Amino acid sequence: MKKWFVGIVSAFITMLFCGSAFAAGTIRIGGLFAVTGPAAFIGDPAKKTLEMLVKETNRKGGINGMKVETVIYDTGGDPTKAVQLATKLIKEDKVQVIIGPSTTGESMAVIPLVERAKIPMISNAAGGKIVDPVKHWVFKTAASDHIAVEKLLNYVRSKNQKRIAILTVSDGFGTSGREQLKAYAAKQGFTIVADEVFAPKDTDMTAQLTKIRAIKPDAIIAWALNPGMAIITKNVKQLNIKVPLYMSHGTSTNKYLELAGEAAEGVIHPAGKLAIYDSLPKSDPQAKLLKDYHLNYQKQYGEEATTFGGFGYDAYRLIVAAVEKGNTTPEQIRNGIEQAKKIPSVSGIFTMSPKDHNGLDLSSLVMVKITKGKWIMLTK
């Protein structure tokens, strides 16, 4: 009897403290967010969103009675730092799943680590190569750039604008977008008459835009994030370029409107539905969720909810959906995320599969035009 009791106690202690086991009744989520640095506009709202949602979950009794804990680190948008902190999350903090990183470059750097450690990761970045080809343990919530590119170029084609100039940033987001723009343009009969690139820290793109103006394209497509997008917008206005200016799906932030000012008038780009949630019919499965998220975030933090914060919402929503079905180990959570079907969230309605670890399609984005400082939906 005594030996039996000692054995039970030993097994219990092993379960609590063994490096491969997790405390019973707790779901521990790691967060890798660019809270500071150039990508803070992506990482900070995602971090705040996760904290808000976890607080609400625990206030309501957790997930199936299990408390949710978070261990969150600021990567500063640095891929090397992201790898170091991901290692810490896995080896020291014993998280069951990781949300983030915020950028494509960071995500690509962390992928080999989580694949070896067999810990599921849900990136908040847009680069399609994060999940294409599919990695067993890696997912992402931002619509892949190939979806945004297709949505945008479908609209451009509908306007019979076939000669296009592209201007992209030379970071992970811009490089991936440039690849997709060139690939899709070739398939759909567009002619790329100018292919200009700028560095992430550049503060003036008039040289590239002057070359583009001389070629007289039907349209200009810029692919970057802020502050680059705002700089391009102002430069286009300064150079009195009259052709339509299209931008990436990373443009739908109040920060862009603030930085670009009046020059943003008339800019067109694909966007998540959060930007125009108050224009959605009540029958839209995302309508109430988007409204509640926006109002709750605004009440909690005194600022507007953003698409980028929504990426954190999506990741948490997918984790909760998996855990609600009894999945608690890293492998079980991974499998639960991959089996997600028709999960409405901020970025769209997610349906994952072994062949698709993004789970979104063209319906996740709408085309919008900036009109008097607001986004107006052009097409569904």
TrEMBL record:
Domain Leucine-binding protein: 26-369
Alphabetical UniProt keywords: Amino-acid transport, Signal, Transport
One of the GO biological process terms: amino acid transport
Keyword Signal: yes
Gene3D superfamilies: 3.40.50.2300
Superkingdom classification of source: Bacteria
InterPro entries from the UniProt entry: BCAA_transport (IPR051010), Leu-bd (IPR028081), Leu_Ile_Val-bd (IPR000709), Peripla_BP_I (IPR028082)
Signal peptide (from-to): 1-23
Family named by the database record: Belongs to the leucine-binding protein family.
Protein name as it appears in the record: ABC transporter substrate-binding protein
Provenance organism: Geomesophilobacter sediminis
